[in-house]
């Protein structure tokens, strides 16, 4: 069956860019650091290196230009991510046992092991702290379920039944993983 044709000029619906207030603040802080500190310092170094003459064998110049491109690429990415965010404060959710963005969920897997995950934005993922993206398989399995539900999670080894033990919403602390 052929794919339906999109009308000329019609744009695809934008994907929601959910993030917590802490995640938004971290990305904004990183962007400001790149714009106000790193990039200006690097521009000075590249300018100095360029004034030294032959640029073809000038390591400071070549490395500086490469690093400048990396910074500019990161700035562009951060600007796009921060352009139209959907900032959702988990603490403002109130008292509910249903799983939505920002929930911290305790569950027991098929082997009887207890796990805790917090559903966060795609830029806030931190497996070591149990922070998973809202578009990850575990989050998709948990979303809109309630404490006490048994959910089927598709894993590489096949489907696994997990039991949701507790759902809570709490303010997430900022991490210092970025400048």
Protein described:
This protein has 179 residues and is an alpha/beta fold. Helices cover 34% and strands 21% of the residues. It has three helices and seven strands; from the N terminus they run βααββββαββ. The strands form two sheets. Strands 5-4-3-7-6 form a five-stranded mixed beta sheet. Strands 1-2 form a two-stranded parallel sheet. A hairpin with a 5-residue loop joins strand 3 and strand 4. It is elongated. The termini are far apart. The mean pLDDT is 87.
| Largest sheet entry | 5 strands, mixed
The gyration radius over C-alpha positions equals: 22 Å
The helix-and-strand class reads alpha/beta
Could you say which overall geometry the principal axes of the C-alpha atoms support? elongated
Proportion of residues in helical segments: 25-40%
**Secondary-structure element string:** EHHEEEEHEE
In short:
It contains three helices and seven strands; from the N terminus they run βααββββαββ. The protein has 179 residues and is an alpha/beta fold. A five-stranded mixed beta sheet has the order 5-4-3-7-6. A two-stranded parallel sheet has the order 1-2.
Topology of this structure?
Elements: E1 18-19, H1 21-50, H2 59-83, E2 86-87, E3 103-108, E4 114-120, E5 131-133, H3 137-142, E6 150-155, E7 158-169
Parallel strand pairs: 1-2, 4-5
Antiparallel strand pairs: 3-4, 3-7, 6-7
Helix pairs in contact: 1-2
Quick tags:
179 residues, alpha/beta, five-stranded mixed beta sheet, 3 helices, 7 strands
């Amino acid at each position: 069956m052929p794919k339906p044709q999109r009308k000329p000029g019609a744009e695809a619906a934008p994907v929601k860019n959910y993030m917590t207030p802490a995640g938004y603040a971290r990305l904004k802080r990183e962007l400001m650091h790149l714009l106000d500190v790193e990039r200006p310092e690097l521009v000075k170094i590249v300018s100095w290196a360029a004034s030294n003459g032959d640029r073809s064998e000038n390591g400071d110049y070549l490395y500086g230009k490469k690093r400048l491109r990396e910074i500019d690429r990161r700035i562009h990415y951060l600007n796009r991510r921060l352009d139209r965010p959907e900032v959702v404060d988990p603490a403002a959710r109130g008292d509910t046992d249903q799983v939505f963005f920002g929930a911290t969920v305790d569950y027991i897997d098929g082997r009887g092991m207890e796990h805790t995950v917090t559903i966060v934005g795609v830029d806030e993922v931190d497996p070591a702290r149990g922070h998973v993206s809202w578009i990850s398989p575990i989050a998709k399995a948990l979303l809109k379920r309630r404490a006490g539900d048994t959910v089927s999670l598709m894993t590489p080894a096949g489907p696994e039944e997990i039991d949701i033990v507790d759902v809570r919403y709490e303010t997430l602390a900022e991490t210092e993983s970025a400048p």
